[in-house]
Amino acid sequence: MAGVLAAANAVARTAATPFHIVKSMAIAPPERLRIAPPDIRTADPTVADEIYTGYFSFAGKTLQSYGESPFALMPPSPAWRRALAGFSWLRHLRAADKTLAQEKARALVGEFLAIKKLSPDDPALEPAVAARRLLSFLAQSPVLLEGADAEFYDAFMLSLAQSARLLWRALATGQAQGADRALSAIALAEFAVCADTGRKIAPQVSHALSAELDRQILGDGGHISRNPQVAVDLLLDLLPLRQVLAARGLQTPPAMLRAIDRMMPTLRMLQHGDGSLALFNGMGATELDRVASVLANEDTRGAAPLKAPYAGYQRLEAADAVVLVDAGAAPPPEFSLAAHAGCLSFEYSLGTERVVVNCGASSAPHEDLRDLARATAAHSTLVVDDRSSARIASKDSGRWRAGRLFDGPRNVTVERTDAQAATALSLTHDGYAKSFSFIHERELILSADGATLAGRDRLLGVEAGAAGPGEQEFAIRFHLHPRVRAVELSEAIELQLASGETLIFESDGAFPAIEESIFFASPGGVRKCAQIVLRGKAAPGAEVSWSFQRA
């Protein structure tokens, strides 16, 4: 029943009003900054060289400015404009440690500050972008303000106050939604600590941040969106805030300390042997340097947890074998814009080699493939009639519904058995109960020596469904990492790993076939890969057993 409790807990947290805040606040421009927070994201000086020569590469798109201000160019995509206006790239110029690069940073910031008025629909005014810009300006203020003239100094301080006011309104009016609320509160809290005019707003901002973290970070350290990337991003901003609070001798809100302490172990739980995070609910290619930066700040480091019942994840491990399982219901709609219909999907790795994966979230250059990547068929689980176990609201569903996940599994059950010979999971979800009158039951067993992963998928009939069983078919998909080569044998499939190791896949109840698939979560972009597919007639009692055996 852990999955059911997780869903109930998530709904209860979202339903509660986190805090009340006045709609406007006269936040004055600072006269000075008391401290500059660190930026723990890694920097690349070669990016500084590109920017210095006029090339701006963001979100998979590159523009050459040819001497013009990049802020005056027609952006190739909204994502490119968001990245430009968020100024996170300033850290690369600072890392170059060259006078010319630092002067370029100040010149580019000056071009943005010189804009008289931004268009109301400019992505630069979105709460998440304004929060990122405020955090970036504060972190890079030593370089930007050193040797700056009075005009730049005043404009810079005014921009900080304007961003703070924008974020205050966004929190008060509800314009900031989902994880953006926590990001906005973090940026405001950092402003309150660093700017000499921040004392006025500090108490309410501290309350707002605490309320959002208590709402969004579940008891087991998972984020309510169930997206591992959101947890990484929040920690990359929370950790510098914790450092500046300590440096100034200020008390860190207990909710913030709880959130950080809980999130770190859960991130490690979702890691494969190569350091990559499991491809669940919006997770794309893992930026290993960022994850390493986060985990380097973990105060105590023990073994990775084996379950996160509120977040809805399970981990099986034996020797160098790791199995990660999505065992949770869909997140609340507010937090589901990136969520996937991958209930009961799993990923499987041996050492540093990932074997079975989900397809992962598509990157910004492949926005047109986003819904495809979110479908159940893009996950290593069972699919009925090529229909997803949850519905993604269409783009014409209205501003607050479009793209969110609806009608997904409501009841997800998990039973875990840890024995000397093996660890077993027995799971069910009802995502197909309404449309097809089926419950999907899945069993996963990892042997104690890590040599065998066995599974069984079964369809159970229910009477509550709106439609009875028909002539539908099911498909059980096992998407393989691009580094895995699959070869058909007479009644089995041989998997050859890049490490040289060999696995044998066998099944009972359906014949295995190799089909093409797509892997969205590669650092280099979309890659072709293979998948093993087991097909059969969808009927009550339909059952297929399968196994991966190390040769």
TrEMBL record:
Compartment(s): Cell envelope
Residue intervals of the Heparinase II/III-like C-terminal domain: 302-547
Taxonomic superkingdom: Bacteria
The protein's name: Heparinase II/III family protein
